[in-house]
Amino acid sequence: MADGNRRLPPLNALRAFEAASRHLNFRLAAEELGVTQGAVAQQVRGLETSLGLKLFERHTRTLALTDVGRSYVGNISRAFELISDATEALKPEPRHLTISVTPTFASRWLIPRLPDFTEMHPDIGLRILATDRISNFQTDAVDLAVRYGRPPFGPGLIADLLYENVIVAVASPLLIEKLGPPTQPENLRHYALLHDAHDFWPQFLDLAFPAGVATSGKNIRFNQTSLAIEAAAAGQGLALASLFFVTDDLGSRRLVRPFTPELRVGADFYLVSPRKPRHPAAVLEVREWMSAAKAGRMGCDIGSITAVM
Questions:
Q1: CA contacts within 13 A on the Cβ side of 60
Q2: Residues in domain HTH lysR-type (predicted)?
């Protein structure tokens, strides 16, 4: 056990000595420590007096360590490194999480809400892995995922419903004003249908027109739902999208819903994570934030932003 009564040299004197030994100059050591040159020289002289040893040879414009000083400073430097390491170890390490989402979920939901997340959780760094491929929690080092489908998603995973997948048709209000309400079959023939990889248009048209309807045959296909949504906003045709992806656009009237029917396809969006995550506290915070963000953003009356034709 260390002797609690052991007398140590003053810490300021040791700092002055260590800095002077690196610079071999009292003035430069003083600039580093933010004190005067005289203060450094005085601290070093006091240390030498306390030890009864000479640590420096003083020359006109420089210093030179004595053999004793050279041996002593090596141990002092290591001691300062230990103090620095011990102090750093007290600081909490930044927490980094990887969340796997589809590109459309990233662009339409997650990215617009990131400023809110970073303000609430500045100590959590999010890495967003935007891919349509199902990421592996182990090999891809994924901590959380938003998955489209129906549970169970695999052993050792927990899944909470994030959003029910309610498919609605959307279009630019300017396009509808130009071509007329697509709910009328004679007008629908003038519209292009904007498809994504899910290709829900046949099912949606059966729902909207049980007796059948003819379309123009104009079809534009995208591999991402977000691209179809943007094309619809640009007035290029009618798109189908999950309602929660277009809520903000509906609220701002950038898009409107020309059809009342809503299509449900039996697959929804779930927030999935391992039962035993690598960073349990951080994962819980992100899960809670996403659930709260969902509740806050979907509180508007969807019926009030459905176009009335």
A1: 0
A2: 9-66
Question: Do the Cβ atoms of 113 and 143 come closer than 8 Å?
Answer: no
Residue 33, token pair as written in the block: 């420590």
d(CA 177, CA 183): 13
The residue with tokens 């609430």 is: 120
Query: 166-265 is classed in which CATH architecture?
Result: 3-Layer(aba) Sandwich (3.40)
Domain ranges of the chain: 11-90, 95-165+267-303, 166-265
> Helix axis angle, 37-51 relative to 11-23, nearest 10°?
110
Taking a C-beta distance cutoff of 8 angstroms, is the pair 121, 289 a contact? yes
- Residue whose structure tokens are 């519209």: 191
pTM over 0.85: no
**Per-residue pLDDT tens over the stretch 208-242:** 999 888 887 899 999 999 999 999 999 999 999 99
Q: Which fold has domain 95-165+267-303?
A: D-Maltodextrin-Binding Protein; domain 2 (3.40.190)
Residues 6+ away with beta carbon under 8 Å from 217 = none
CATH 3.30.720.200 fits 11-90, yes or no: no
